[in-house]
Amino acid sequence: MDEDLKAIDMKPLFFPKTIAVIGVSKNKVSGLKFVLANYMSGYVESGGKVFPINPKYKEIEGYKIYPSLFDPEVPDIDLAIIAVPAENVPNVVRDCGKKRVKFAIIFSSGFGESGLEDLEIELRKAVKEVNKYTRFIGPNCLGVHNPYSKVCYYPGSVICPGNVSYVSMSGGHTGRLSHWLVSQGTGVNNIVSIGNSVDLTAIDFVNYFREDPVTKVIALYLESIPDGRKFMKVLKETTKIKPIIIWKGGQTEEGQKATKSHTGGLAGSIEMWKAMAKQTGVILADHFEFFADAVTAFSVKYKLPKDEKVCILACGGGIAIEYSDLCIKNGLKIPELSEVTKKELGEVFPPVNTSFTNPVDLGEYGYIPYNFDKALRIVAKDPNISSILFVREAERFVLFQNVLGIPNMEKITIDLMNETTKLIDKPLFCSTSPNSQEVEHYTYRYTFKEKMLKIDVPVSDLIANTCRIIKEMVAYNNYLKRNAKVV
Amino acid sequence: MDEDLKAIDMKPLFFPKTIAVIGVSKNKVSGLKFVLANYMSGYVESGGKVFPINPKYKEIEGYKIYPSLFDPEVPDIDLAIIAVPAENVPNVVRDCGKKRVKFAIIFSSGFGESGLEDLEIELRKAVKEVNKYTRFIGPNCLGVHNPYSKVCYYPGSVICPGNVSYVSMSGGHTGRLSHWLVSQGTGVNNIVSIGNSVDLTAIDFVNYFREDPVTKVIALYLESIPDGRKFMKVLKETTKIKPIIIWKGGQTEEGQKATKSHTGGLAGSIEMWKAMAKQTGVILADHFEFFADAVTAFSVKYKLPKDEKVCILACGGGIAIEYSDLCIKNGLKIPELSEVTKKELGEVFPPVNTSFTNPVDLGEYGYIPYNFDKALRIVAKDPNISSILFVREAERFVLFQNVLGIPNMEKITIDLMNETTKLIDKPLFCSTSPNSQEVEHYTYRYTFKEKMLKIDVPVSDLIANTCRIIKEMVAYNNYLKRNAKVV
């Protein structure tokens, strides 16, 4: 087998039986937080063992502290977390090797990213000496989270298992995508913050995630990559099997300059990244909101549209125009519907305040879930279109319930759509088109979106993102048609 | 005075003493809703009088119904709402003229936008006959709303007075921006949905809003404009005094095609609109979220940045890079800070996990409101920059309150900023950088944003919008420098 594509067994990292936290102190933002995180998350309760280490203490907040990794009471360690001052890290790295710790996360920062190049050189030397025994994540990182094993890097993490595996060079962006996915019920699988990556890089994790059956979609936040040739090869091999979405931080010269003091790598131009994405079938994101929406869309049992031809189903002329503008700007097409489709729509909806050309304006009657469902089924049969983009303003369900006298509009909508998506082969995309920021209205959108994702319909508040996701899904489909047979 | 710039007295429209609703029936989505709206909003309670008219009824839902506009009990009418079937509209229009009604809103649709060109021609003829007595809004529109007079077009409208006046060709987009502004506490002033505009057009309203002292910012959603030359003249005259933000619906060929069945006008290419915006100092929006954020930013007591040079204040390297990318992509500059600034920041913040070049990464210590306030004051003095873009993740206040032991972090942040904005002359822009969709976290962001707007700091969840707003404000400032002296 090709060495570049060989996956390291990362079970001891994501499903450790034992965790040592080296450098706990009374400061809750350093080592102690890992101890608390893993006690609070249920890791210890489900049989995991945590060994806090610091020769200066015997006990902190009721936890027994061990003097050293080599204390006779400390067993074999799957995962060590190194949270000591930067200058001590190289020695602790060597200790991890000596102890035959399987994986170690270097939480400490203050290396190349802070201009301390000498210390980073020393660290890299120490890592090289022992990495046949121990593999390292970091420095300058948060480490790993897995809701199945309940390993956590932050106390109070919500355990929400999903199928998204994520590697990030930024600690902030690690938490951000992860919280976002958890908060919408999508959940996560393997989450890893890799910081400066002196040993294991995104490449190693992508190789592991490719083979991991629970991972259905791979998300990466990267500022640089150490080996472009190898990375390309690994991406190509992986996108044939599951989608990869990369948010490249530092897309502009100024942004790249800032990456230097952040994770310290060499960034490469955005043109290079774009070319790489095109050649490997990777979806490229350029800001958080799109990144999060794209990862979400691929985390459901998605259908890939066969081409750019979209049917827009709206209630209201203004919104139909807005969606048309955004589809076209994002490279999609809004072809004329067949005469049969128009005729059938005309049998369900009145002629005034409606329009049966594409974009379709169903008028106020389109708010009635039964009528809307009929419209979905009618347009889905049209040979001129390949996907359906529709609006459901969940925040107005209660208003329309009262006006139209249909109680429980949300439930009816979801139930009908759940049946309909199974009967039609064209993908559906939903946009909620927010009207109000009030908490009550937000809550309607929020619960509706969660339910739509559960029935595998991609949904977003931001129509521009949805249009771009449709376009990226078409591109990914085309990429697979050209390349997947090679598998 | 130039006839093109003459403002019609619209007091009887926005502050009517009497309203006639012609064509009430038991159907709650037609005429009756205007009656209900104005009873429920407090219009009647504050002395306004509503006269529902229909010869077929004597009473509906406890309201007395009058047989005709010419009934002796119906007094002089400031505002009539015409909600009869399209084919009867021309006759009712003539009746309004005969009765010397001052303004009439034609709510009915089914004219040019539905392909019924003949009926629209007849309507235009009738309007022309009587518009020396009566001025008309619509057809195919919602009409007007004013929270000061409590005139409403929808039952249950929240009365929230503000300084934004808004004209929209789409009923849906009328409600959308209006709800959005009300839901964030910004409120609205004169709101008008004009539909196909057979008589009064956006031009007439802009002329009125220019003279209206309560209006501080003008928002327009337009799909077409009847008289480009006159419109340009009016825009030029107005932007010298107050900002105008236009969302152009139908920016693409397909979008324009869709406007035909919506409001029926001739749209003009987006290039033409862009050229017009540049020549008149108008800010052009291309989707709802930017439109809403831009209107909001101009609704506060804003300061215009003198040029593109922005200082980014972030907590976290990933976010600093994200904001740098988006600033540069939106045509802004992130210049190097002066040595004095870097030195002073170094006196407040530690050297590890921070970066004092622009973008500034304040690290975790930047979450402490007192430190953050010091950073604001330090960078505000830097001669190399003209505005400050900063991050406050309101949803994490509670978390950091507990970690850092600072209770009431939101209040301290707002109070300090309220003092600081008064002392510094450079504009501040805030981004909330959402991490979580949970209702609890959303609520923290929502209340924080409302409070930031109250102390006149523009704020948004969407960083791309904020960057674009800064750029547009710089452009508007440059426009004013070149043109405002002509006033």
Tell me what the structure shows:
The structure is a homodimer of 487-residue chains. Chain A is α/β, with parallel strands linked by helices and 487 residues long. Chain A has 17 helices and 18 strands. The first copy, chain A, has helices at residues 11-14, 32-40, 89-99, 117-130, 171-183, 202-211, 228-239, 253-260, 270-280, 288-299, 317-329, 339-348, 369-380, 397-404, 409-423, 439-454, 463-483, and strands spanning 18-22, 49-53, 59-60, 63-64, 79-82, 103-106, 135-137, 143-145, 164-168, 191-193, 217-222, 244-248, 283-285, 310-314, 360-361, 387-391, 428-431, 459-460. In chain A, the strands form four sheets. The first copy, chain A, has a six-stranded mixed sheet, sandwiched between helices. In chain A, strands 2-1-5-6-7 form a five-stranded parallel sheet, with helices on both faces. In chain A, helix 2 (32-40) links the parallel strand 1 and strand 2. Chain A starts with 10 loop residues before the first helix and ends with a helix. The relative contact order of chain A is 0.08. The mean pLDDT of chain A is 94. At the A-B interface, helix 5, helix 8, helix 11 and helix 16 of A face helix 5, helix 8, helix 11 and helix 16 of B.
Main sheet summary of chain A: 6 strands, mixed
Tell me the number of strands of chain A.
18
Q: Order of strands across the widest beta sheet of chain A?
A: 8-10-9-11-12-13
User: Strand portion of chain A, in percent?
Assistant: 5-15%
Radius of gyration of chain A: 25 Å
Shape of chain A: elongated
Largest interface: A-B, 78 and 78 residues
Low-confidence stretches of chain A: none
Structural class of chain A, by secondary structure, is: alpha/beta
Oligomerization:
homodimer
Helical amount among residues of chain A, as a percent range? 40-55%
> Number of helical runs of chain A?
17
Mean pLDDT of chain A: 94
Distance between the termini of chain A: 14 Å
